[in-house]
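Lecture 7 notes: from sequence to structure.

We start with a single chain of 350 residues. Read the sequence below before looking at the structure.
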Amino acid sequence: MTAFVVVMGLFAGVRNVMGIEVKRTATMAQQRGQRGERTATVAQQRELREERTATMVQQREQRGERAAMMAQQGGQRGHEGEKEEKTATMSQQRGQREEKTAMMAQQREQRGERAATMAQQREQRGHEGEKGERTATMVQQREQRGHEGERGLREERKAHRVRGVWSYSECFPDSQSVQIVAAEMNGITPVRNREEAEKLVKRHELVNICHSPFYSVDKLTHSIPYLVPKAQHLLNTICLNFMDSCQVKGLPIHLPIVTSVLRTTEDVSNLQKGNKNATTNSCHCYGTTVDIAYNKFMPMTGTYESKATLLRWNEPMKQVLSEVLNDLRLEGKCYVKYERKQGCFHLTCR
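Now the structure, written as tokens:
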């Protein structure tokens, strides 16, 4: 039994091996069939490719013929086409340039806006920094100017002291004979009365000097308040310089007082009745001469007073007025005579 079982087992194993080999053979045959089919399909594909290649060659030949035909036509249209192409390319280039210009303009605007914002920020920061720097510099300057300011004040006080002239009679010696020449040259023809003087005022040859903020006109008894324009300008200059000098020298501001102006022939004759020394051909008859008092001055209070209290016999005021007149006399603007008895400076414009 045992041997039988063994033999049967061997027989079964042989069968199994033979079945496996049969199966392998069948599968290999199938694979060979499939390969054959693949080869056939590949051959068919090759044939299709060759046909396609032939058709493509034919199409290429046809395209070549067409290209030759078009080349011939293009030869005829060559110049026109080139011109159109050039025009098209130039228009394209112009369009590109315009686009680039627009882009650059936009970039510039953006840069300008950025620069403006940065400038604003810098200004905001600058004000704060400048305030601090200014404060520091001002403190330093104040410290530096401390001693210098004191010295400057001392020097200014010395420079602006009231000095006057060294001699009234020697500094103002211009007599009647000297002043009459300038009066006849710069003045009017002497008038007989006030009516003739009024006519000259209407002609603008004479000017009324009553209303002026620079001086005060005294009550005139033997003259009328008229001068030629050149003499009026000199009078304004004298009085302005006088007030300025008073302010600089630390004196209270006062107005000079005019005591005598234009005299008519009638005024001279009336004056000679009481004063035998009065000159017939006076410089006052030409409207170029004026008398300014040195023994009285009008205070400048800023308010109107019908009867103001005059400053009388003030030597500093007299010295300041003499300084002003001496400067103008040395500049060749006027002649000046110091009148002791009348208490005035008798001057004529040059």
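The chain is about 65% helix and 10% strand. Keep this in mind for problem set 3.
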